[in-house]
Amino acid sequence: MTIRSKVLLVGDNPFHNISHLSQSRARERGANPCDPEYAARLIEVAVENGADGFMFSISQTTLEILRILRDRGRLSGLRLYAIAPYAYEYVRLASQLGGIPGLAKKVGGEILTSRNASALRFGLKGVLQTNPEALLKAYVSYELSRVKAYAGKKARVETLMLHQVVTDLALALGMSWLFKAYVEFLRDLRIAPGFNTGNFAFLVNKLDEWGIDSKKTVVAAPFNRVGFQMTPSPEECEEALKRNSTLTVVAISVLASGYLTLVEAAEYLRDLPNIAGLSVGISKEKHAKETFRLIRQMLG
Amino acid sequence: MVYILDDEALRVAVVGMGKMGLLHAGLLNVLPGARLVAVCEKNRLMRRFLARMLRNVHVVDDVYALEDMDLDAVYVTTPIYAHYAVAHAVAGQKLARHMFVEKPLTACYSDSRRLSEEAHVLGGVNMVGYLRRFMVTFMHAKKLLDRDAVGRVEAFKVEAYSSDFHDVAGKAVKANSGVLAELGSYAVDVARWYFGDFIVESAFVESRLNMGVEDAASFRLKSVKHQLTGEFQVSWCVPGYRLPQVTVKIKGSRGTLEVDDDEVRVEKQDGEAKVWYRPDLHDTVDYWLGAPEYCREDAYFLHAAKTGETATPNFDEAAEVDKLLEEIRHKAREPS
Fold it and tell me: Average pLDDT, whole number, for chain A?
């Protein structure tokens, strides 16, 4: 893969008011980036300055952003890298509904009312046969139907990635069946399967060990000069990256949540092999312009 | 802290497969010092799915079914109201020598005290999951305080906030326990860890959401040994706290120190100022699940169980937190 082919993605963290460096910094930023109109405008500016796509957790905020971009005719050609579930919302709901059983009932109810035939069929099978694979397929069908409802059927959904918490929990529990079922199901849907992980090296090894064909599987994982969130160590993550030639690796946390400058981030990524793309969050028009223009200049 | 865990794995079971149970089960399955042998869950549907999802792990419906599994350690991650019954069964039936209980230890001080005594009889390592003791920011602040980085501590303030129940008007919400147990316990534990024992000077507790539990509290604790008073504010109805956060603001004779889940800030009277973020504090672990502190916490407990070293905070210390929480509730009920 040449440097020129790197995919530059707008990350959605600021649109959910997330700063992994400091929550107080996110609070100081105020609510502006969470306004879908404003966020959609930022994505437009980013695209005008070199961004290729949008990486987002599927939430009401990001779905609304997609709807606005579609209405403005700015969605065609935009590469969508979706992540599900939006873990924060599910954790919050679990707290509000008295735990996981309450959450499961709510999500089950939403799948029922979605009227998505695949989601309903797999959901029914999953519950009646106690079949976790079918439930996984029901959930994936449901989330994809939400994206299509807002972005339109012609939207370019490149991948649906399992959220970091789900990937890393399933990985830790050795649930190879989940990885196999997920990869196969997404391929059947002609969408690249994807995993968002905080344990890149571990995931790469396990996919090999479990004999999962990882060709064109997207993996989003932290890569940055200071090793922030690179588990268990930057060296092991970089080594796994060198060894891998089949996964499509998208670097996240490239600025270490604002700890690094753009130039520092880009210099580090320029020297890494096998990075297919990267995702960066933006919260102001000025940032959107400068960030993607500079990264495009430095990384081609 | 780096814990070297050898491959000789401790046999561990997790009781209560909610959010925290799943998280600990995952870590225990992946850390080299442990092997997840069994999980226990009351909910029948959850249990049926767990049995299909977790291969090579026993799935049982009752803590007594863990007998004869030759367990070394049990993690208790049930709702708080069930902590005592489960941990009491583990100790009484000698299901395992070592026990980890999610915070707070129990819902009432007398139960916590009893459990602490039972754990002494059991003889293994016992620990309560006060996670902030394993966050690099709070660990760094502790080191700075131990080195008198801001001089003699004169006063402090603790805020423990989340937005879990902010903006829930009109929604059917339910909580298994109140904000004092969920967030206030962290605030009190950090204060005890940093400054020692306290007594309750004043307290105000509010229920705003008709869930039958407290939703906000403010209280003042006074140090037993030092001329030191701390102000505490606790609430889960505050906007802007996407994740729960504890902030400790300390005024010393030579400057101020502020620590929260993300950063440590020191400002000295001579004008010197410094900020440390997580990337500055070597926030790396062997496996990332949820946040690095979970892995650090479990690795620490397993290390203590293997070496026989005392783990902190143990049941004795955690019982003292429960005592203060009970006194706060009691004080809040006194006529002003």
Answer: 91
Distance CA B116, CA B133 (A): 20
Q: A273: how many CB neighbours lie within 10 A of its CB?
A: 12
pLDDT tens for residues B69-122? 999 999 999 999 999 999 999 999 999 999 999 999 999 999 999 999 999 999
pLDDT one-digit tens code per residue, B9-35: 999 999 999 999 999 999 999 999 999
Joined together, the tokens standing for residue A227 give 């090793």
Please choose, from the candidates B175, B181, B182, B246, the residue with its C-alpha nearest in 3D space to the C-alpha of residue B212. Answer: B175
Burial of A25 per CB tally in 10 Å (0-12, 13-18, 19+): middle
What confidence score (pLDDT) does residue B66 get? 97
Terminal Cα-to-Cα distance of chain A (whole angstroms) = 12
Minimum Cα–Cα distance from A177: chain B residue = B53
d(CA B279, CA A254): 13
Report d(CA A81, CA A67) in Å as an integer. 16
Cβ pair A96:B52 closer than 8 A: no
Which residue on chain A is closest to B211 by alpha carbon? A96
Give the whole-angstrom CA distance, residue A202 versus residue B71: 27
Residues of chain B numbered 55-74 and touching chain A (CB < 8 Å):
55
Q: Can you give the pTM of this predicted structure?
A: 0.93
Alpha-carbon dihedral of residues A252, A85, A248, A168, nearest 10 degrees? Answer: 80
Q: Which SS3 state, helix, strand or coil, does residue A104 take?
A: helix
Q: Which of A96, A205, A253 to mutate to test the interface with B (most CBs of B within 10 A)?
A: A96
Which of B14, B81, B210, B284 is best to mutate for the A interface (most A CBs within 10 A)?
A: B284
The Cα B227–Cα B39 span in angstroms is 47
Contact residues, A window 3-22, toward B, CB-based 8 Å cutoff? 16-18, 21-22
CA angle B103, B108, B111 (to 5 degrees): 95
Residues of chain B with pLDDT under 70: 1-7, 336
Chain A residues in contact with B44 by the CB 8 A cut-off are none
Judged by a CB distance cut-off of 8 A, whether residue A163 touches chain B is no
pLDDT at position B99 is 98
Distance CA A219, CA B295 (A): 22
How many Å apart are CA A288 and CA A296, to the nearest integer?
12
Beta bridge partners of B14: B39, B75
CB atoms within 10 A of CB A293: 16
Residue of A nearest to B44 (CA): A101
Whole-number Å distance between alpha carbons of A278 and A5: 11
Distance (Å, whole) CA A176 – CA A211: 9
| Alpha-carbon span B46 to B61, nearest angstrom | 10
Residue A114's pLDDT band (boundaries 50, 70, 90)?
Answer: confident
Two tokens at B19? Answer: 């959010």
Place of tokens 């399955």: B29
A31 touches chain B (CB under 8 A): no
Residue to substitute from B278, B280, B293, B295, interface A, most A β-carbons within 10 A? B278
Alpha-carbon span B148 to B153, nearest angstrom: 8
